[in-house]
Design goal:
131 residues; mainly alpha; Pectate Lyase C-like; 18% helix
């Protein structure tokens, strides 16, 4: 279950969130099962965050730092991912079917599986399990 304090801060002010993250780089970010649908998370520092099962439908993730985040089973339908750093993300079972601006290059150092749903024109990386 997501940390309500972290969720409230992130929803309220991404700049304040990023300032807090800079001062607390070792803090565990628990956003499991959080509903962040339609939330503006542009440039948010979400590296290493636990976003398992989170709902990010139509979320604005342009330029967000999701490096190493756990997005296993997350719903990213319609999420905007232009310039998002998803290096090292666990995308197993995630639904990215209509995610915008997702590129093959972004997926090269992620983990995925047969349950990961990608947009029609995005090629599944060969290193993913169950590909």
């Amino acid at each position: 279950m997501a940390s309500q304090a972290q969720l409230d801060m992130l929803r309220t002010d991404v700049d304040a969130w990023n300032f807090w993250r800079a001062r607390n780089p070792q803090a565990e970010i628990d956003l499991r099962d959080a509903d962040l649908s339609g939330t503006d998370l542009r440039l948010a520092h979400l590296q290493g965050a636990d976003l398992r099962g989170a709902t990010l439908v139509l979320a604005q993730l342009t330029g967000a730092d999701l490096h190493g985040a756990n997005l296993r089973g997350a719903n990213l339908v319609g999420a905007r991912l232009i310039g998002a750093d998803i290096d090292g993300c666990d995308l197993r079972g995630a639904d990215l079917r209509t995610a915008e601006d997702l590129t093959r290059e972004q997926l090269q150092s992620t983990r995925g599986d047969a349950e990961t749903v990608l947009p029609d024109l995005v090629e599944r990386p060969s290193h993913w399990s169950g590909g």
